[in-house]
Records
---
Amino acid sequence: MESTLLQSFLRAANLKRWLAKPDCPAVIKECKALFNKIYAPKVPDSDVGDSSLQDDVADTEHVTGSDATLDALLQNAKGKVATRARLRHNGIIYSTSITHLGNSLVQFYPNGDTALSPVPGCIKHIFSERNRLYLAIQRQLPLDSPIPDPFALYPQFPAKMYSSHISPSLERVEVGWIYSHYARWEMSAEYAVVLSLNRVRRIFLASVSRTYCSPQE
Amino acid sequence: MTRIQNVIRDTAVPSWLNSVPHNFGEAAAGTIKADEWRNLSTIFFPIALISMWGDGSSHATADEAFRFRQILDHTMLLVSAISLACMRTATAARSVAYLDCLSKYIKDLVILHPDVNYRPNHHMAMHLPHFLHLFGPVRSWWCFPFERLIGQLQRLLSNHKFGKFDVVLSFCYV
């Protein structure tokens, strides 16, 4: 048994070495790309840094008229604008709400101002303009009528009640403004629970409604 | 239980958060692993319990409401302690807050649940602030990487004959 184990280990090592060699045939290199997709570790390496450029997501050129709200947001855009389904930033994947709803729910600093509390929103589009990536986000609306928030009593549990509706207008957000993902559970047709998933810093959501300002066009 | 299953099923979470069994509580769900317990207890349980028993919920009698509220507040102490301990940065203030939550939780445990006895884990959890102070965030010294390795080793196929097996293994890893 030991020799079998050792042999298979050596064979695997030889195979890896062969795949990494420059004189490996192109067909086999294609197989390597496939192997990497299947067997690559699921957990992203956080030390990689900004790897959005290494993404294998194809950009699609934005066609005016496909979405009126996005057109309004991009009316002052210069150069070619391309949309995409997802992007990777610091090893974390963000995607549009159509692609993966959970990955599209992010809290971000309004206008990148870290002095303000992050506000929750849903990524509707991801677009690149002059080689920079931006997100078009619809904010989660605050509650219409003030009701007692049962989550406010537990300061160590960063959840808060919001309206289950999202703002119809889009807001342009830079990738660096993102604070973290959040979990959302729709309690009823009107109310949704928003729970911050940041495990590094904790900013209490109690002050969010105070700092809420109307989304900028 | 149905409420917890609903919350697990309907909550939108990002893909980096490991999934938990949607049929939690049933035998078919299997053994819950440590990471699944953590996600359940810091995300899904509190959302479900607060929405059922928290402020603004309605119950048959005032006594029942009071009892559920007591249990909820008590459980939230444990939830707070877990999320404070599992943060990726550790501060002195967090360590103090953890100890505060946990000691209140342990003190009230036998009052609210008279049929429960203290376990060694309750005692060990009280030592955690000391380790946070000495070694930093739990993530850098918890045993889950080693547990994962043990899991991999256990899943290796073997013929149950132990000879040079360990030598070869250590040779491979080196």
---
Amino acid sequence: MDARSRILSRVKRALKGRPKAELPGPLHPAPLPDPLELFLRRLEENGGEGRLMRREEVRSFLEALAQGFSGAALGRTLPLDLRPPLPELPPEEAPLGVSYALFAVAETGSVALASEEGRKVHLLPPTHLVLVEAERVYGTLAEALASLEDLPTALGLHSGPSKSADIGQVMVKGVHGPGRLLVAVLT
Amino acid sequence: MRAKARFYPKEAARLLQERPGVREAVTGATLHFERNRLRAYAEVPIEEWRERAKAVKDHVLSHLDRYLEEAERRLLEKGVRVHWAEGPEEAHQVLLEIVRRRGVRRAVKAKSMLTEELGVNPFLESLGVEVFETDLGEYLIQLLGEPPSHIVGPAIHLSLEEIRRLFHERFGTPLEASPEALAGVARKVLREAFLTADLGISGANFLVAETGTLALMENEGNIRLSTSLPRVHVAFVGLEKLLPRLSDLALFLPLTARAATGQRLSTYVSLLGGPAKEGEEGPEEVHVVLVDHGRTALLADPEAWETLRCLRCGACLNACPVYRQTGGHPYGYVYSGPIGAVLDPGLLSLEEAYPLPYASTLCGACYEACPVKIPIPSLLLTWRHRAVAQGLSPTWEKAALKAYRKVMESPALYRLFSKALRGLPLPQDLLPLLRAWTEGRGSLRPSPRPFHELWWELEEKDGR
Amino acid sequence: MGEMRVALFITCLADQFYAEAGVAAVRLLRALGVEVDFPEGQTCCGQPAFNAGHWEEARTLARRTLRVFQEAEYVVLPSGSCASMLRNHYPELLPGSREALAFSEKVYELSQFLVRVLGVERLGEGLKGVRVAYHHGCHALRELGVREEPLTLLTNAGAEILPWEAAEECCGFGGLFSVKLPEVSLAMADRKLSTLPEAQVLTSTDAGCLLHLSGRMAKRGANLRVAPLATLLWEAYAG
């Protein structure tokens, strides 16, 4: 008998005669009235920076943003028209990472980043810009998870800049992920 | 990891005496967490959430074999290698095989209480692997060679001054360095480790059976990095971490975050489903080690199995007025505070965990805080009862309780005792029990006359 | 209201260390038209033994207590923890005992009895302007759900309940805990006392808590009146 069989048989024996508890059905929370507004508010409360913009405005936004950076690492699934006018750098070196989110969740102020576009771009550059389509901003986490058909290999829910208060209870940003999270919601 | 719970009374007393800064630091940190939790609980229909979470966990636990098998199937379908470990030996075997086969020289670790139980760090180090704890708090205590003091904030017992001194000695930073500067140094060291590590090790907050998904929560990003950059990722998962459906994460992720730190969701949540696909970034190999290490024994316990609902959020530690005075070290095992007092005897044995169930006044604050309604005070009473039945009580306690019963069983003896309390000069310094009282609280002063005598005067006065 | 009859369970700690609380409780109840009996032979509810895990000793005393009070319609105690012992834990100690179950329904802490059974929320004006630090005993608060009753009665009598950051935190008495883990127990008392507001009196439903806190205050040279809740409620009525 290997460890697996021993463990499983111990579990079965432990549960013998124990009454079975029922599983409550999944939650169906009421849809939230204005997910876009809520998303921006919650993101800001988390220390992130978010704004709404029409797709036509993205070009000028990216141009302005590019002024402050020497280059950017780009997510592989980032649409061409959403790339900043900057030389592409590897994530280990880039001061800016740009991603295209799978979806966003308003109640928690989170963006969902899939491994298809890479993982280093989400984590290594100190500033992270995430673009997300407005119709992919769900009100609740329950809705968002329900909408997923295929799970990516890795899905990251990012809700703000990286932070820690482990040093004398003083909040410090950017240990170890990006210290700045910018989100542009495209209407 | 061996438990040193029996030293709790001495260690707690010593800590209070010799390191008063710990009490101050822990009190500050836990009150802060508590306030945040209360605010976050007040924002949602928390009683509904708690009831529901309890129900889901009870369901999983009462069908655990089924869910373990389902999870294993899904994990295997996703290309994850699944191992089962009864305890440290098998866990070490998994690591040994990987270290040898892949020539691992450096490992990065996310915070995981289970890996502390299993002694993962010392084992890897014995193989010549350089291990980096990457959670900032864990990194600090790794540098100091101390065990974690709290489930969520392992270094809350350290003051800023102590950390400044540590970095000054280790890295030559100035003694007045700001927290930002110190964090910057740690970030640099650990960034290097992330980029060069051959192996990433984590625990898991949840394992979803329906999809074989691992869910991990954090605020720093070190878990995302540890599970993304190295070529091999090993996740140690306690049997009790299972959830039935992906949709259950919509309850458990926010509930755990609110309970632990008062957040709506942790800054980073990783939902992991296997090794990287061709051409994708991510680990080539993902291993999940399903670990027993006392969990099946606790599951079999008809009164204590509910303890396994624990989400490791630390809310009970933050609420506990006893824990607050010393932090986690005196408890002598991985799990301290209220949950430690009921989990340790269940996972290890009552003998090994004694007298932790007595490290409590039964005030009930922990039960109010617990997101899955573990009846900790009731469990503490059960363990105490068992301790007495197993003969673990000290001799003086048994004698004192015997005398107490004799006196209270007989009104005549009780009245005699009452007179003695006032008549004879009680040797308050001699009796160790009384000395333990009077040393910190001054001598006991009974009322000039006990109520049972005054009653008769009341009867007379009121004309009865 | 004149027909109501209660049995007073003074509790061992109050009997010995806060006898005034018993006197106050009896006077107050009688003034409100309640007949009060004091069943002889009452001693201790068994809580110290139960909490320490010595359930055989606790059971003996529980059975005894049930016998002593079996005639009572209501059992009133100037103690939250003992009331909780009788109400919540006797049925656990004596599972299947219908007697214990029936008994538990008749048990009340004093302020709980006044407000919930007698429907009395105003006693008088006797505490006008008195600044009170109210310590919520853990068993009263979390096991009996007694939180508003003492505050209502005190406030309606003119008392000012001062804000106290640590008001609902455990004082560190915990029965045998106070002598099994004295250093931690004292550190908990110090936490309470270091946040104490500028009050004229410290009060609570529980004698154990008051004994522990007043003892610690005395040792540290602090000088604040400590009075059991029953005493203050009588002062509220009698002026």
---
Amino acid sequence: MTIQLSHFSAAFVFALFASIVFGITHRETTRDMVRYGLYCFAMFLGGILLAGWAMWLVRR
Amino acid sequence: MANPSTVKVKAAPSSSMMPVIAPALGWFIPGAGHVIQKRYIRGALLLVSIASLFLLGLMMQGHIYKANGGDILDILGFIGDLGAGGMYIVTLAMNGGQGAIAFATADYGTKFMIVAGLLNFIAVADAYHIAIGKKQ
């Protein structure tokens, strides 16, 4: 079985699963785990969007 | 005198063998090191996250690294893949992860599998910390 994800959907899935693991392993309490997981997810996606726009600017 | 509300209470290790068993089992089956220490939800989330990343990498026709003594990047790729434990062994046994350069996203798949292994290393360390009572 073969799947082909787009660049953004691959990055989204990657950010989601990596954030879950980071949240669970880097914090002590459940509340902190959720908050840190969401923070990591936002940073991943924010970084992706920023890098994408930066490359667009460089290309022009 | 310390304020009682600010004193951290460390979890007691549940068994003398747990610091060995939990990381070993957690490496072989992602999240299992947490499950045997009664952290069921954390274990399930780790299993779903790491296994999904690895399987998506396989389905994206990613390449899996074998033990090698060549290029440093190949060695690092092998170390990363090895972290996936049982999934890596089964994939090798089934001759999977050959990689397909025909797909543009196959390289993403390769990275997905390496990162799944590296994330599992972090999960293994976390299971060890729970076993020795350093983390709740």
